[in-house]
Amino acid sequence: MAPSVASPSAGAIMALLFPLLACSLMAIASAGNFHRDFQITWGDGRAKILDNGQHLTLSLDKASGSGFQSKNEYLFGKIHMQLKLVPGNSAGTVTAYYLSSQGPTHDEIDFEFLGNLSGDPYTLHTNVFTQGKGNREMQFHLWFDPTKDFHTYSILWNPRHIIFMVDGIPIRDFKNLESRGIAFPKNQPMRIYSSLWNADDWATQGGRVKTDWTKAPFTASYRNFKADACVWSSAASNCPSKKSSTDSASDDWWNQELDFTSQERMRWVQNNYMIYNYCTDLKRFPQGLPPECSLA
Ligand SMILES: *[C@@H]1O[C@H](CO)[C@@H](O)[C@H](O)[C@H]1NC(C)=O
């Protein structure tokens, strides 16, 4: 557990002030600091928080990768992170950035960046797990080189949609189709996780291209974390207020969905940059495509 929430007196104060704090917590959560919001979980010094918490790097060498996770758990939110991926020959490396709850029936919302040879495109792999079941992969190439600069990768998760965005452009919309019998993540709080690791048995060109360890250490960088999100604490969310909220526009993620223009942009991405869609993989699902594929 995060040391910052271990103190019982802090817990007692929270309980007393909770109604007052609910709003301000959300505002505080907006300006991220890696020291305050995250903890390094593995990698024996390979993960580093720099510049007073404004910057984080993960690295991978032959002995180990590294990773971090958020101190908070969230139940719904709009979560942004800027990443700059491993440059040069990144074949075999995987940078995973995802939200996940715990346990055998966990929910999960995944971004994974699969490295490649210099000059060959990264693959952005996405997936959604509900109640422990995934198998909903969609993969993309990007319309820019994700190793040259920081780009923003966002997850909008509200009761009706999970929308994946890259630099504000939606690339995938997983809709709540519970009314049609398809589970949707809405009861299990999730933490943010990220890791950089070696997966050269499958990641690059189906595992044919191996990691070139003479190029190690491999490094990925993070900055500008921002969460407009419902923080889960003491088995409750600080967001019940949202349901009746008529707050400012910045809070509107709770009701956000894709308008016509955003749908057009998503279609542009999917038509031009999508390289795999489980919903069109008839070979993989000979008994029929997953039900959401014909409803989405
Ligand atoms: C690597 O580059 C090849 C050739 O352009 C491409 O087919 C593949 O999707 C790229 N990504 C990965 C992870 O192999």
Automatic annotation (TrEMBL):
It comes from the Eukaryota. Its EC number is 2.4.1.207. Contains at least one intrachain disulfide bond essential for its enzymatic activity. Residues 28-222 form the GH16 domain. One of its GO terms (cellular component) is apoplast. It is an enzyme of class 2 (transferase). GO terms for molecular function: hydrolase activity, hydrolyzing O-glycosyl compounds; xyloglucan:xyloglucosyl transferase activity. Glycans are attached at N116. InterPro entries: Beta-glucanase-like, Beta-glucanase/XTH, Beta_glucanase, ConA-like_dom_sf, GH16_AS, XET_C, XTH. Its main location: secreted. PANTHER family: XYLOGLUCAN ENDOTRANSGLUCOSYLASE/HYDROLASE PROTEIN 8-RELATED (PTHR31062). Catalyzes xyloglucan endohydrolysis (XEH) and/or endotransglycosylation (XET). Cleaves and religates xyloglucan polymers, an essential constituent of the primary cell wall, and thereby participates in cell wall construction of growing tissues. Belongs to the glycosyl hydrolase 16 family. This is Xyloglucan endotransglucosylase/hydrolase.
